[in-house]
Specification:
334 residues, MetI-like fold, mainly alpha, 67% helix, single chain
Length: 334
């Protein structure tokens, strides 16, 4: 008899032996019926996400993107009142920009805008930082006083502007009444070309200080107290502590405050228009108010007004790029 040869056997599942016929190979899972439900849940989640985003997107497109694009195009067109009736607005290239730059009011308006912006930023930031440094130290009623300082920022600009216009009135204003107590003659804040720009700067500083104070106050609270304790142990005085610890660690917050303040101040229109309307004799005119007067003044030259507004947008855009570049350099230095 020859050697035993292996017999072909067929495994039949019996008691205690699992049946394996018809089951997927090891390492695989049955997904039939699970994939459609998973895909449906993902689609449902995406639809829900787009449903929440849709109102925001529509709002940004309708109230931001479209007006900006329309204004940019209008700056290159001869757009007048007749354009609304006929629908015709000839393309004239840089004609509007050349007319704006060659206008005798352009450079005085640019100078007023620069003075108004720089003076507002310097005083808003300085006063805001001083108040933030004052309130960072706890004392009785500090929360109440800090809340009161927020009122100028919370009030509508039309209310603040109207109140300040009454206060700055030459004959009945409380400012001149207060100056009269010290023998100072009445000042024509809103009617004297030599001081009208100073008047709107004062109003804008009063409105912008609370914003600077709140942001800088938050930045001061983020500085570890241990650094000040270590500086005190080393014998550092208040000024040295302020310049070597507070100012350097506040640099990121300071950059944000100054950039936002710059953009806001460049586009200030409400305050100037309510208090002086850019006058008298264009002495407090800025690019924002001048752009409005070009568009809705007696001549109704919408193309010129759009060109002046586009110049303002370009200036803000340039400073925004400078801020982004500075932020990147600071991150690289870290």
């Amino acid at each position: 008899m020859t050697a035993a040869q292996p017999l072909a056997t067929r495994t039949v599942p019996g008691d205690g032996e699992p049946a394996t016929r018809g089951l997927p190979a090891r390492g695989t899972t049955r997904t039939t019926g699970e994939r459609p439900s998973l895909r449906q849940s993902r689609r449902r989640s995406q639809l829900i996400a787009w449903g929440f985003l849709a109102p925001v997107i529509v709002y940004l497109v309708v109230f931001y993107a479209y007006p900006i694009v329309r204004n940019l195009l209008m700056g290159f067109q001869e757009y007048t009142v007749l354009s609304f009736v006929t629908g015709e607005a000839p393309f004239i290239g840089l004609g509007n920009y050349l007319d704006v730059v060659s206008n005798p009011l352009f450079w005085p308006t640019v100078a007023n805008t620069a003075i108004f912006t720089v003076a507002s930023l310097v005083f808003q930031f300085t006063i805001g930082l001083a108040l933030a440094q004052f309130f960072v130290k706890r004392f009785p009623l500090s929360t109440v006083l800090r809340s009161l300082f927020l009122l100028p920022w919370l009030l509508p600009l039309i209310v603040s502007g109207s109140v300040w216009k009454w206060m700055l009135d030459k004959d009945y204003g409380i400012i001149n009444a207060f100056l009269g107590l010290f023998g100072i003659p009445a000042v024509g804040w809103t009617v004297d070309p030599s001081v009208s720009l100073i008047a709107v700067i004062i109003v804008n500083i009063w409105i912008g200080v609370p914003f600077n104070m709140v942001i800088l106050y938050g930045g001061l609270q983020a500085i570890p107290e241990s650094l000040y304790e270590a500086a005190a142990l080393d014998g550092a005085g208040p000024w040295r502590t302020f310049t070597r610890i507070t100012i350097p660690l506040l640099r990121p917050v300071t950059a944000v405050v100054l950039l936002l303040g710059l953009v806001y101040t460049l586009k200030v229109f409400d305050v100037i228009w309510i208090v002086t309307q850019g006058g008298p004799a264009n002495s407090s005119q800025t690019l924002s108010t001048w752009s409005y007067q070009l568009s809705f003044g007696p001549q109704l030259q919408f193309g010129l007004g759009a060109a002046a507004g586009n110049i303002l947008i370009l200036v803000a855009f340039v400073f925004g790029l400078i801020y982004i570049h500075a932020q990147r350099r600071m991150e690289e230095e870290r």
